[in-house]
Amino acid sequence: MTISLSDMVSRIDPSNTILFFGAGSSIPSGAPSVQKIIERISKTFDISSDGYTLSEISAIAEEKSSRSDLIKTLRSLFNNVNVTGALLSLPLYKWKNIYTTNYDQLIEQSFSRKNSHLSIFSSNFDFREQKVPEAIKLYKLHGTIEKDICDGVQSRIIISESDYDNTSEYREALFDALKYDLNGANLVIIGYSLADQHIKDIVNRAVSINNKSHISASINLMLYTEDENRASLFEKRGINVAFGGLDEFFVELQKQNAPNSLVYTATGDPLDNFPVLQAISIDVNHEVTNSEKNVAAMFQGWPATYADIQANLTFQRSITKNIESVLQDTSCLSAIVLGASGTGKSTLARQVMLRFLKNSYHCWEHKTNHTLLPDDWRGIAKLLQSKNEKGILFIDDAHVHLFELNNLFDLLVSDDLDSLKLILTSARNQWNPRVKTPNFFSKGQQFFLEKLEETEIEGLLSLVEGSPDLQPLVEHSFSGFSRNERKRRLTAKCESDTFVCLKNIFASEQFDDIVLREYAELEESIREIYRLVSAMESAGVNVHRQLIIRLLGIPAEDIASALVKLVDIIHEYSISDREGIYGWKGRHPVIT
Length: 592
Prior knowledge:
The chain is an alpha/beta fold. The protein is about 45% helix and about 15% strand. The strands form three sheets. It has a seven-stranded parallel sheet with strand order 3-4-2-1-5-6-7, with helices on both faces. Strands 8-10-11-12-9-13 form a six-stranded mixed sheet. β10 (about 360-365), α17 (about 375-385) and β11 (about 390-395) form a beta-alpha-beta unit. α3 (about 55-65) packs across α4 (about 65-75), α17 packs parallel to α18 and α21 (about 455-465) crosses α23 (about 485-495).
């Protein structure tokens, strides 16, 4: 049976722990996935990628062109890869040693930023006297991106079939080091998929070494994707398996182990002073620089990323300038954007964040799945105030973090800090019923995102017509209409609802996930009302309040509360005030 990540972390002592990183640990910092490398090689060398592994397609490309061209193509994917997030916490602990099969230099960057010494070994030829004897060693088992035999050096990036055949020639001393390090130590393997052949090879080698060792090591697998069946196969071999990501690992680690004190190195990033925040926050500047646009994700109903916005794949909302103005006001700490699902709240907030980034603000986004840490953000606000700098923090689904937000607001107000501003987004049905500190009302301003205005519809149409990335995704029947007819359909047929407009333009069933996620977040009793109203309305029934009360047996005194929790989802309108008859209808027939 798998163990909790907290339990796994509690069993290890960093000074007696070897970390072994796979590709999954580098992807949050912008490093390419194996699939992305395969796609780039396929496109560059005109080779079908169907069914080929990375080593196979690399060998074909090398045979078809040259080793130099293959490595040049590979390096082009690592040009703008910079360390961020949880990896920045890596130098805070005195690990026994670190191993990786990644080519990137993210670990090196992390240690450099913290002014911490690191000895790097990428082949047998790197073994020599260390400049700093007590420095942590980094063993790069598959080589490093900046050194390859095509450069005239005695080192090889392990990528093609022939490279794996020559592994022993260049790597045997590295595996010998692993054998000695494993003796009585903890091994934590991070960033691999259980279906990955590499993880099987690494585990087999580790188990083999462990079985021959006089003092057994503890082998731990930390996996992002849950797969209990495959996990059980590893557990039968005495390996501990826990599910979680790199961010969660370092959050748990900092709860249970005090980081080593380091001499602070000024990098310009205030989060360097609060390393736990680096694991649970997105640095917007890094995202813009290192991430790529992803039209497919937007097409499937996810908010636009910072890279999408930077690539002009979104249209401007009319309230953007009002939000900016409020956040620039020294008497205001927060802008709260409220609206139903699919209205574009998250995208709007990220648009505002990018505008502030261009005005030299420090910009961060909290990772929704993690607990917000008010005391640490208070420290950030104090640091910014002392340096006469400004920062802005975006918190999506703010209702999830309302308890912590209440604390943070009260702390910022009591300290009279205006250096850190907040952008919050939430659905009104989730936000309104919850208890909030009075400071939300005195120091924050709410903005409601509802139907598209005429200028916004014009902007959406111009975007769709002028973007080469979006044009292939437009539904054929919609693209066949004239500009005026398109506008009429969005205004009349779609009633200017953002979600319905986008679904009408792109005709993708994946957009339905937006509404289904909203439905899933409702309380069960409220969800049943929503389901019943939608079913009856879709069947042509004129739904009214008394009908719902009779069918579901809802006490009359609970109706007001239910409507608050269904605001922007179910709308009540008057049929006869004298008779006390009130109709209920959904946001739009397409949604119901």
